[in-house]
Amino acid sequence: MQTEQEIGQLKEKLRVLESENKQLKDNIIEINQAKELYLKIFEDFPALIWRSGLDMKCDYFNQTWLEFRGRTLEQEKGDGWIEGVHLDDVESCVQTYIAAFQKREAFVIEYRIKNKSGDWAWIRDFGRPFYDLDNTFLGYLGSCYDITEIKNHEALLLELNETKDKFLSIISHDLRNPINTVVGLSALLEKNVSKKDFHSAEEYAKYIHQSTVRIKQLLLNLLEWSVSQSGRMNFKPTKISVKSIINEVLELAEEMLKQKEIDVSVNFIENDKIIVDKEMISTVIRNFITNAIKFCYPNGKIAVNCEIKDQVFVISISDNGIGMSPEILKSLFIIGETISSKGTNNETGTGIGLLLCKEFIEKHQGEIEVESEEGKGSTFKLHLPLDMKFNETEAVFN
User: Fold this and answer.
1) If you compute the radius of gyration of the chain from its CA atoms, what whole number of angstroms results?
2) pLDDT of 274 higher than 80
3) Would the pTM of this model clear 0.85, i.e. be above it?
4) 176 neighbors 167 (Cβ within 8 angstroms)
5) All domains of the chain in start order, with CATH
6) Could you report the per-residue pLDDT of 358-392, keeping only the tens digit for each?
7) Which secondary-structure segment (H or E) carries 384?
8) Residue 92's CB: how many other CB atoms inside 10 A?
9) Which end of the chain is more exposed for a tag (fewer CB within 10 A), N or C?
C-alpha cells in the first residue's frame, strides 16, 4: 500500500500535469486564434494571398484573390487556380514553384492569369516558405500583385524605342540622298557658272529644285510626325466641305499633274460637309494624290470619288498606274518595313508619309483601305464615320 506521502506526491504530479495540460490547451487556443486573426487580416489585404500545404496543393485563397478571379474557394483550391493561367506560362510557373518547394526557397514569378472579366492580367507572385512555432515546415505562403499596367508600359516603351530606331533609320536614308544630290549638283553648277559654261545649268537647277522640294516635304512630315508622337498635336475638328479640301490639294498639285499630263476626274456629292480636322485630312489626301501622281504613267488617269455608306463618308483616290505587289501592300503602314518604290519618272517618296496618314485617320477613329494590283493601279479609301463624337471640341456629327 502507498503511504500518505506517496499519495500526496502523486496528487501533486497530477496537479502539475493538469496545469501544464491546461496551459498547453490555452497556448493552442491562442495559436489558433492568432492564425484565425492572421487569416482574417489576409482576407481584406490588398494583395492576392494564397497558401499551400505539404502536398504542394493550395488550400487557401483570400477574398481579394477570389474577387479578382471571380471564382469560389472550392474552384481555386488544389490545382484549380492553374486553369486560369495562360497556356504559355503554365510550365514555367509550375516548374519554378516545384523547384523552390523542394529546396524550401523563396521565389518570384510573373505569369498571366484570367481575371473576373475574362481578360489576361499579369501577376507578380512572391512565394515564401512558412513554418510553425517549432520550426516545422508547413508549406508556402504567397502574395501576388497585378502588374498588368506596368507590363503594358514596358511593352509600350519597347515599341517606342524600336519605332525610334526605325524612324531614325528612315530619316538618315531619306535625308542623305537628296542632300547629297543638292551638294553634288550645286558644286557642279558653281563650277560651270564660274567657267561661263551654262549648257547644263538649267538641268542642274531642275534636279536641285526637285531635291529641295523633297527635303522640304520630308522635313514637314518629320515635324508633323514628331508632334503627333509627342501627343502635343492640336486636334481641332470643325465642319467643313470635303470638296473644298480636295480642290485645295488638287490646286497645289497642279504643276505635278501638268508635268505628266495626268487627267483627274472628281465625283463630289451634294451633302459633303463632315466634321474633321482640316489640316490632318488635307495631309492625308495630299499624300494619297501625290502618290497617285508619282505612280501614274504620263497621260495617266486619277479618279477622286466621294460617297456615304452606312453612316461612313468614303473618299476614294484611284489611279491606273503601276500598282503594288502583295508584299508592298502588306507593309505600307508599318514603320521600318515600308518598301520604297520609285515613281514612273523616278520620283522618290519621303518614307513616312503613309505612316502620318495612318496616325491622322486613326485620330478620327476611321480606317484606310487599300486595293492594288501590279500593272493595274491602286485605290486608297478613307473611311470617316459620320456618327463619331469628338470630346476635344464636343463636336458631334449630325
Assistant:
1) 37
2) yes
3) no
4) no
5) 44-146 (3.30.450.20), 148-233 (1.10.287.130), 236-398 (3.30.565.10)
6) 888 988 889 999 999 888 899 999 999 987 665 54
7) strand 377-385
8) 13
9) N
